[in-house]
Amino acid sequence: MSDIQKVAIVTGASQGLGLGIVNAFRARGYRVVANSRSIAPSDDPGLIAIPGDIGDPATAKRLVEEAVGRFGRLDTLVNNAGIFIASPFTDYSEDQYRQKLRTNLDGFFFTTQEAIRVMEKQGSGHIVQITTTLVDNADSRIPSVLASLTKGGLDAATRSLAIEYAARGIRVNAVAPGIIKTPMNPPEMHETLAALHPMGRMGEIEDIAQAVLYLDDAKFVTGEILHVDGGQIAGH
Q1: Structurally, how many domains does the chain consist of?
Q2: For residue 66, what is the domain's CATH number?
Q3: Assigned domain for 222 exists
Q4: In-domain check, residue 51
Q5: Which of 129, 189, 194, 221 would be 174's cystine partner, CB 3.0–4.6 Å?
Q6: Other CB atoms closer than 10 Å to residue 120's CB: what's the count?
Q7: Which of 5, 44, 1 is nearest to 22 (CA)?
Q8: Is the pTM of this model over 0.90?
Q9: 102 DSSP assignment
Q10: Residue 186: CB atoms within 10 Å
């Protein structure tokens, strides 16, 4: 058994899915670099909290530099940061469009570039995107073209990167959640949102964290879009 203490970066980590993923990695003994615009400082010596806009290349560079400088390596990057705005297509504003591109795509692009540079030198690493099942399962009750545009791009990029780096020890996967009980979904909406899933319930944060850990352990899996969506991808 290896005595190496692994290191993960998690973006969008101040609450919801990101915080749950951070906690799951820490419980497993990983050291973690966590980022969001408003993340609070941490007293945990195994956790570095770095505030900043993930769409800024300087933030991406700092996350990776801190991981390597403080912990000596980088094993896993979880590109969780994202903005979801459900809206009729013609009602989206230019500001909403630019904001989603910056967070959902720019954040992925710059952080993943920096991470892969380190992982190539190590000869190993794992990149995980958090996308959405709406990419493959559009629903007229949840008009969300910008989610499909950006997260669908991440799904495609996941497969492309997986093939590009498969022979270099770097795996690339994604988790595509259904609707999860996070602060962005108010309790009064839970019954309605639960009914959108064939299983008749919303997902829990732990469902997504467990999926990320599964992919981190699954050494023969790359290029996979793992749907954790209560059966939505199978049909209605």
Answers
A1: 1
A2: 3.40.50.720
A3: yes
A4: yes
A5: 129
A6: 14
A7: 44
A8: yes
A9: I
A10: 8
